[in-house]
Amino acid sequence: MTTLTLPEFIRRLPKADIHYHLLGGVRLNTMLDLARKYQVDLPEAEAKSYYRAYQTPGGPRKGGIAALTFLYQLMQETADYERVLFEVAEDAHHSGVKYIETFWNPSDVALPYAEINDALVRTIDHCQQVFDITIRLIPSINREKSPEDAVAMVEAMIAHPHPYVLGIGIDYKEHQAPVENFWKAYRLAARHGYKLTAHCSEFGLHWRNVETGIELIGVDRIDHGYSIINNPELTAKYAALGIPFTVVPSNTYFLQQWPKHDEWRVKHPIRAMAEAGLNIIPCTDDWHMHDTHTSKCYQVMVEDFGFDVYSLKTMMLNSLYASWLPQNQIEQWAEEWSRCFDELFAQLDYQPKLSTKELILYRREHNGKK
Asked: Could you say which of 25, 181, 192, 286 is the most buried, measured as most Cβ atoms within 10 Å of its Cβ?
């Protein structure tokens, strides 16, 4: 029987990434091509400063938010967004991803919302045919802009609805712009049936930002949310409620806080969140900017954070149940993906970090025994 290494096993798993910034998936060569197209002076060394894979110790380092800001200013035509989304789908396909919910920031785009959204929708249909990958859209508030800009974004969504547009989010630097500043936009979106999510407590900021997102704004899930573990009472409450937290193993803030790998892997709040019973879902955030991909995120959960291989099945399914797909689609994929996991698990040549009791229970489940 064919055996699989852990990386190959993970790559072949069907996966969903429900926290993915569209322009965080821009390849380096694409950024350079776009700069040439618009005659923007962008030396390769400067372009590389946006990408973790090319950054050197002590060298220039701009990071993901700076990359998004630069790219939104750079990209001037719908064809640019079509190219980026197609390449995102291509990369995700090679990592075994079957479903993506991707953020983009309409208030940062040079063209009207409807033009970009129509271009993205066309590309989604094309990618479905070419890569058998499903992509859906989450217009996202740039919290560094005004609450009125956020309301205008939602009004554009309402004026130009499309079934591929599932809800709204909020991102960029949170320090001076907590989610409650944008309550009007969220309330308007909710009244028109859109789902809600929010980046909260991403950069070590206070757990109150998570509490506000859930209790006041009424979000369906939290993006990041790491500081919630500093409030055990709320952590227990949200664990019991099953609130989804899309967590990012490659989060820049914690890599900078604990640059030593052994310290990072032990102290990263993802571990504590899982131990507290929170519903955590590994996601990529900014794929190329963070030098990661969906399979790598899952692998980090096992090899760095100490989760057993079987727990990946739970995370895989939780990513579906936390998604904004129709319930019948979720149930269908959950059954198919579970079966795929079990078949691949049987071929895995890896010592899973399961206790003997847990392994016996899993094998009984896999074999259909009581």
From this structure: 286
